[in-house]
């Protein structure tokens, strides 16, 4: 998976060549992975279990994904999504929609049962860490960065705003609650986070336009 630059849908680690690609596996495997993660957690996920659930074989999985951790990374990218932030013409609407996908994804069992364990594995495996960043983290971050830059172009966000800092602030509340479980991830969380962030970097024109929201 890490040796391909074709994106989340095709960024798999293939061994050998010449064998026709079964495109059905591209959909069946991520779905099977997420089902097992919700049922049995990260520790309960095995290549054998995924193969059985997806109606394929372990060798077929090994030709595309070198480990169960790589299966999890690609499944997150395909199921949670890597381009969550739309362009609706409304800066805060776009940001709420983008950050909201994290809330939707991690209110399932996958959040608390998978993300902390996966992050621990990333720390000990530089290749897997790069896989995670390239296939899942950076693409999502890029679409939200695009929304922030559009907000600057529209005159909603101050031109001197630190984009990287804003990106960290927008997503960190959800990830923090997933990792530590001290507070719930509610449907209103994304809107609350975006409102607080925008209160700090919005232009006076934006504040005036949204003073009654």
Describe the structure in brief.
The protein is mainly alpha-helical and 213 residues long. Helices cover 66% and strands 0% of the residues.
CATH topology of the largest domain: Tetracycline Repressor, domain 2
For the record, the CATH class of the largest domain is Mainly Alpha
Q: How many domains is the backbone divided into?
A: 2
CATH-level-2 architecture of the largest domain:
Orthogonal Bundle
What is the strand content? Answer: under 5%
Average pLDDT confidence is 87
What features would you describe in this structure?
With 213 residues, this protein is mainly alpha-helical. It has two domains: 79 residues, Arc Repressor Mutant, subunit A; 129 residues, Tetracycline Repressor, domain 2, CATH 1.10.357.10. The chain is built from ten helices and no strands. Helix 4 runs parallel beside helix 7. It starts with 22 loop residues before the first helix and ends with a helix. The N terminus is likely disordered.
Keywords:
Arc Repressor Mutant, subunit A; Tetracycline Repressor, domain 2; 2 domains; 10 helices; 66% helix; disordered N terminus
Q: Topology, pairings included?
A:
Layout: H1 23-40, H2 47-54, H3 58-62, H4 68-79, H5 91-106, H6 109-123, H7 126-154, H8 163-180, H9 189-201, H10 204-209
Helix pairs in contact: 1-2, 1-4, 1-6, 4-7, 5-7, 5-8, 5-9, 6-7, 7-8, 8-9
């Amino acid at each position: 998976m890490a040796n391909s630059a074709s994106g989340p849908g095709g960024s798999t680690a293939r061994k050998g060549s010449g064998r026709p690609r079964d495109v059905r596996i591209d959909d069946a495997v991520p779905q099977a992975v997420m089902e097992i993660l919700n049922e049995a957690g990260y520790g309960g996920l095995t290549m054998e279990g995924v193969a059985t659930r997806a109606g394929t074989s372990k060798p077929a999985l090994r030709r595309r994904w070198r480990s169960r951790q790589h299966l999890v990374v690609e499944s997150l990218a395909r199921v949670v999504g890597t381009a969550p932030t739309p362009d609706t013409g409304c800066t805060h609407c776009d940001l709420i929609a983008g950050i909201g996908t994290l809330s939707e994804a991690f209110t399932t069992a996958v959040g608390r049962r998978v993300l902390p364990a996966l992050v621990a594995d990333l720390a000990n495996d530089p290749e897997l860490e790069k896989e995670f960043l390239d296939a899942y983290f950076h693409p999502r971050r890029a679409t939200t960065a695009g929304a922030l830059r559009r907000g600057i172009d529209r005159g909603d966000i101050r031109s001197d705003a630190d984009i990287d800092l804003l990106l960290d602030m927008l997503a960190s509340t959800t990830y923090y609650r997933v990792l530590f479980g001290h507070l719930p991830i509610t449907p209103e969380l994304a809107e609350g986070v975006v409102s607080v962030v925008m209160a700090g970097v919005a232009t006076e024109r934006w504040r005036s336009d949204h003073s009654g929201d």
